[in-house]
Amino acid sequence: MTVAQYDEIGEEYAKYGPYQTFHKYAVYPRFFGLIGDVQGQWILDLACGDGYIGRELVARGARMVVGIDESRVMLDIATRNNPYPWNTEFHWGRVGSLGPVGSFSRITGGYVLHYSSSKDELSRMISDIKENLLPGGIFFGINTDPLKVERKFGRKLKPGERLEWRVENFKPFFNYFWPREVYDELFRGAGFSIEWIGPTPTEEGLQLHAAEWWTMELAAKPLALLKCVRL
């Protein structure tokens, strides 16, 4: 999605994104569970959007979260909705050309890597992650799952293919397809391990909807979590 698209839908997206049933009960609980204990940590949040991930991390004990986004509308929303002004910072920046921001034990990136329009841009995003992550630190991402994306589109996709998505009442938006092998190659080449992890519904989610509903949702939603350790 281009910055202009985010600028146009920012207010509506901020109300929808984390609170949609699948995200609320399967994606984000699993994501924060993987991140684990953040007490006293400094965390960099790439493509921070409305600041949801940062707010949650501070609420869970992070000492400081620095959010970076290239949509000024989303940054404005993040600033306005921020109950932790002493523990968060929000700055404009473009992942892939950030350079040094700081030294962090954890870096998060919700829906950022699959917007790379070329393999070189994806490599530069990973370089930004490495440059700002301490040795032994971990990058946690939320990303489209290439395996599920191909099943959803019903055909073999080309690396770098531009894909159109339609979600709820939002205007169509676009990202790019990269096979798992490309992500694996670039992360490992940059000195990371990489693990793909599927969303898992919480007990509360299972009480809200039957197991059959979740089986269909997990199959239909082409999302995965990434855990990449800097070796």
> Got a strand count?
9
Given the C-alpha coordinates, what overall shape results?
A: globular
Rg, Å, rounded: 17 Å
Residue ranges: pLDDT <50 for 5 or more in a row? none
Mean pLDDT across all amino acids: 92
Please give the share of residues in helix. Answer: 40-55%
Alpha-carbon distance between the two ends: 31 Å
The structure class reads alpha/beta
The topology string of helices and strands comes to HHEHEHEEHEHEEHEHHE
Report the biggest beta sheet as strand number plus sense, adding barrel if it closes: 7 strands, mixed
Helices, by number, come to 9
Strand content: 15-25%
List the strand order in the largest sheet. 3-2-1-4-5-9-8
